[in-house]
Amino acid sequence: MRIRPLRLVVLVCCAAIAPVFAEDWLAVGSQQFAAHQFAEAEHSFQQAISADKNNAEAYKSLGLAQLELKKYNEAYHAWLKAEQLNPKDAKTKYYLGRLFYDADFPNEAAAWLRETLKLAPRDYAAMTYLGLSAEMLSYSDVALKLYSNAIAESRADHSPYSWAFLSLGKLLLKRGETDKAFKVLEQGSRECPEAHELSAFGQLLTTRNQRERAEQVLRQAIKLDPSLSEAHYRLALLLESSGRSDEAKAEMKAFGQTKQQEQEIPKITAIRK
User: Fold this and answer.
1) How would DSSP label each residue in 56-117?
2) CATH number of the domain that 47 lies in?
3) Segment 76-129, tens digit of pLDDT
4) What does the pLDDT average to over 139-166?
5) Which residue range is the domain that position 62 belongs to?
């Protein structure tokens, strides 16, 4: 028989007879969230709010759990409440900006991300997503500066941010600055390897006929994230052009499977304001 942690047993027992402190429910919910028990975490954070309706941290945490559960509107309203209760919390504003960006509302995203940076001017993730929002709004020069600043800030923090490297590299490619893009993606792949970043770098290596290195980089991307369809697709094309048909077919099959899985992920289609 599995013995539950004493703290959790006490909470469950007490909950049946009397209200529990919000901090206790937050502690339990945080443990559940870390264990990817998102439905259970959502319930615990809701209990924390029942115990203290003015607890901004509980609303912020509830939004994170609901985001994982694909309850996008619920997450939005939880974060709005958290922001109202604690307007000085930069992270809540960042979460709202990210949600609007993922829902394809770049103006709203930019507004929240600018507010984030007023409170946390060195937040390189907020810089990056503000850049992505600016790029969606056709302000590519602004985006370029934001990505560059995000890379500099993340490196200064000894936490190079792969999404900033990837975003800058892709924008440079759009602008036809291929050599600069190569240097950025190469640096990012070395300092903070991430599957999307490696996939983009592998594709660029292929166009430069560095086939052996491209294959190594694409396989590294797949190892980091086997569910990333674009890495399978690019590797399949590389193998096919090298005359390795059987291997190419296997990768193309993996591409089809992962692409279908990606298409089945619920999209953020609307946020009710």
Assistant:
1) HHHHHHHHHHHHHTT-HHHHHHHHHHHHHH-TT-HHHHHHHHHHHHHTT-HHHHHHHHHHHH
2) 1.25.40.10
3) 999 999 999 999 999 999 999 999 999 999 999 999 999 999 999 999 999 999
4) 98
5) 1-87
Dist. CA 27–CA 11, nearest whole Å: 11
Residue 28 lies in a domain: yes
Tokens (6 digits) for 214:
């491209």
Residue 233 pLDDT:
97
Tell whether 74 is covered by a domain: yes
pTM: 0.87
Instruction: Please tell me the total count of domains within the chain.
Output: 1
Nearest to 180 by CA among 191, 168, 192, 190: 168
Residue 33 belongs to some domain of the structure? yes
Residue 195 falls inside a structural domain? no
Q: How far apart are CA 216 and CA 194, in angstroms?
A: 14
Q: CB 177: neighbour CB atoms within 10 A?
A: 15
Q: Look up residue 238 and give its two tokens.
A: 């590389």
3-state secondary structure of 51: helix
